[in-house]
């Protein structure tokens, strides 16, 4: 998988884009600008530097057989898709759904998506990498919740499996760390109530089979005399 900058892929200014189909509509909106704000900026795809030799290697452009209306619809669809990519990274399936609103032929839509993939605008592996970093570092989620999030974003099972395989095998430690942080607010609750509530919070974050054991250990540590240090 590609390396990231803190798990996100939008920290650099997006590279200039050669208009995909040469139309005026495409040229007018071809370069998604840098966005303000950390949360917005962090979700944008990093565009690769253009190289002239790519022209011979990239997929052929969509063909609309001289139909003026179809050509206009294609240019409009390209412009809308580029605009969406300014705001957030999209999976290929999400991009296809966006194109479905423009009545493009399936072959034309597929050719357009292939061009976006070739230019680095669409990259499911990079998107999975971003989402996993956010889920682990900001939300404290486990593998089950992460896999569900990736699936909901339209990322394929094969890409999800590869992305999750790159995670360190520290889910039990992360679950315990989360449980310890939450256990401090449950000192006033009865043991069974606190255990049920804490295990439920862990389960909702996708920690699965480790939820109950992490909750129990965190509560045991809170109730241990060694955890209650008094200063006189």
From TrEMBL:
<dbReference type="Pfam" id="PF02631">
    <property type="entry name" value="RecX_HTH2"/>
</dbReference>
<protein>
    <recommendedName>
        <fullName>Regulatory protein RecX</fullName>
    </recommendedName>
</protein>
<dbReference type="InterPro" id="IPR036388">
    <property type="entry name" value="WH-like_DNA-bd_sf"/>
</dbReference>
<comment type="similarity">
    <text>Belongs to the RecX family.</text>
</comment>
<dbReference type="GO" id="GO:0005737">
    <property type="term" value="C:cytoplasm"/>
</dbReference>
<comment type="function">
    <text>Modulates RecA activity.</text>
</comment>
<dbReference type="InterPro" id="IPR053924">
    <property type="entry name" value="RecX_HTH_2nd"/>
</dbReference>
<feature type="domain" description="RecX second three-helical">
    <location>
        <begin position="123"/>
        <end position="164"/>
    </location>
</feature>
<dbReference type="GO" id="GO:0006282">
    <property type="term" value="P:regulation of DNA repair"/>
</dbReference>
<dbReference type="InterPro" id="IPR003783">
    <property type="entry name" value="Regulatory_RecX"/>
</dbReference>
<feature type="region of interest" description="Disordered">
    <location>
        <begin position="24"/>
        <end position="51"/>
    </location>
</feature>
<keyword id="KW-0963">Cytoplasm</keyword>
